[in-house]
Specification:
Strand content: 25-35%
CATH architecture of one domain: 3-Layer(aba) Sandwich
Bound molecules: adenosine-5'-diphosphate, magnesium ion
CATH class of one domain: Alpha Beta
Largest sheet: 6 strands, mixed
Helix content: 25-40%
Radius of gyration: 18 Å
Oligomer: single chain
Number of strands: 10
Distance between the termini: 34 Å
Amino acid sequence: MSSLTIRNLRKNFGAVEVLKGINIEAKAGEFIALVGPSGCGKSTLLAMIAGLETVSSGEIRIGERLVNSVAPKDRDIAMVFQSYALYPTMTVRENITFGMESRGVPKPQRDEAVKRVAALLQIEPLLNRKPGQLSGGQRQRVAMGRALVRDPKLFLFDEPLSNLDAKLRVDMRTEIKKLHHRVGKTTIYVTHDQVEAMTLASRIAVMHQGQVQQFDEPQAVYDRPANMFVAGFMG
Ligand SMILES: Nc1ncnc2c1ncn2[C@@H]1O[C@H](COP(=O)(O)OP(=O)(O)O)[C@@H](O)[C@H]1O
Ligand SMILES: [Mg+2]
């Protein structure tokens, strides 16, 4: 398990500075929720942690290792997006193992890994179906399976439940909580949902216009919200 340290992280797109010196430290195994209004820089921050966007200045460390210039595939990070983007012509099993196959993981190991995550996510009966034959919640689980199968150091979630209806969101929130208890990986989780942030996170980072305004435990954010957005967000 690894900690994540973000120090004075800045990002410019041309002349526009969208991240203005971000500082966040996630302890090994910690679950951090990232909240803030649309456009404040949440997805950009996740993309930089994953290595999909370059760093303008500052540091990203996974454990002790400075990863600013490390290629995405060598960071040992798994990311789950809002849109699951499963391959429609592949079965659930193939969707989950595709990445391992392209990395040359031998078949016995692939089979073992599928068995492990399918049991964890309770999708064993779905392994031979195509994504079109699944509900939204099942597809979301498969997308998580694809991330989990890699046994990464770090999980990044970018509003993974916002496309689901209310009932499924509640179920999946419970699943994610259980999952985190079981595998205990360091997680950064972007959400627009107050209950998700309150119930899942050990700490919440409140972002506003490219800065972290508040980084504290859920109850403290609830009691003393740093700004109007989070006050509204916290109801
Ligand atoms: N590739 C890009 N080029 C230029 N501007 C970008 C790019 N990606 C994001 N931005 C801008 O950066 C800001 C933060 O975006 P984003 O990280 O997507 O916010 P959030 O996820 O919090 O809604 C926005 O103003 C957005 O328009
Ligand atoms: Mg976003």
